[in-house]
Amino acid sequence: MSRHVSRRRAVGMLVAAIALAAAGAFLGPKVYRLGRTFHEVNVVADRLPDLPAVRAGALQRRREFPVVWAHRVDSLERAVAAAPQFEGMEIDVVYDAVADYFDVGHPPVPSQGLSLEHLLAAVPTLSAHYFWLDFKNLTEANEHAACARLVAIDRKYDIAGRTIVESTSPGALGCFTDHGFYTSYYLFPESPLAAMTAAQVAEYYAEVKANLLASRVNALSAPYRSLPFIEKYFPETDILLWYLDAGEGVRYHAWVTYLRLRPRVKVILVSHATPGYR
Fold first, then answer.
1. How far apart, in whole angstroms, are the C-alpha atoms of residue 112 and residue 33?
2. Residue (of 237, 145, 236) closest to 187 by Cα position
3. pLDDT by residue (tens digit) across 101-151?
């Protein structure tokens, strides 16, 4: 079966799911907006240039994760609120080399002085939860010091088997992979796929391919609208996504259902309103 036919079948499945879950004339505008968004993503997929699929690079690691996780759990209050509803939480961290600790926060939001260890200690039933560390300042210069600190945290909290470490610098993730953490190369940190020309896509493809082949990561992570890029060019790589559109209505449930059906998608971050969001 061609990818084009497969994609058309996926569109049909999505439309059917909407029809079943959202019957009623009052949903017309919502369904229209959802269909339009899906069409826009599909158009981007159809415009991708024909380039060879990369079937090697990421290290395959069997790891079972819950699928839907809470995005941006960067405060004690939000961690406590999210824990009963989500098994998985994404936490933004910055490694402070001078103080040798992981500062929890999402620059440019000012630091609150909260350490990763302090946040983990506040999570109810810590052993039942999973963590995605969005490492904001990982480089090859601080890789080993940061890795040593996270390994020390793992010895205390036993989190390596339940933790994703993500960075835009895949070459600096090797130490984390070697110590049992599940690692991911963060794609499209600056320019969205839809804004790229065919030439820019080809150039970015070459960059990602080279970085992936030169590193030891387990997955690729990206906004959900970038899924066509990963599925087309890196079809055998695990995928981590985020779907951060507000609300939990028809659009949310239809998209999350569709993304869950994609065979390589392992985790989906979603927005969720709680006290303590920062």
1. 38
2. 237
3. 999 999 999 999 999 999 999 999 999 999 999 999 999 999 999 999 999
Q: Please count the other Cβ atoms lying within 10 Å of the Cβ belonging to residue 19.
A: 11
Residue 263, classed as helix, strand or coil, is: coil
| Helix segments in 49-137, DSSP class H | 76-82, 116-122
Secondary structure E strands in 25-159: 68-70, 88-96, 101-104, 130-135
In one-letter notation, the amino acid at residue 18 is: I
**Rg of the Cα trace of the chain?**
19
Q: What is the tens place of the pLDDT at every residue in 180-200?
A: 999 999 999 999 999 999 999
**What span, in angstroms and rounded, lies between the C-alpha atoms of 93 and 238?**
23
Measure the CA–CA gap between 170 and 276, rounded to whole angstroms.
Answer: 31
Positive or negative: CA dihedral 54, 224, 41, 199: negative
Task: Tell me the CA distances in angstroms from 66 to 58, 116, 122, 266, 273, one per residue in order.
Answer: 21, 21, 21, 8, 20
Q: What is the pTM of this model?
A: 0.88
Give all domains of the chain, ordered by start, each with its CATH number. Answer: 59-270 (3.20.20.190)
pLDDT tens digit sequence for 61-101: 878 899 999 999 999 999 999 999 999 999 999 999 999 99
Cis, bond preceding 124 (omega within 30 deg of 0): no
Question: Identity (one letter) of the amino acid at 234?
Answer: F
| 131 burial type by CB count under 10 A (0-12 exposed, 13-18 middle, 19+ buried) | buried
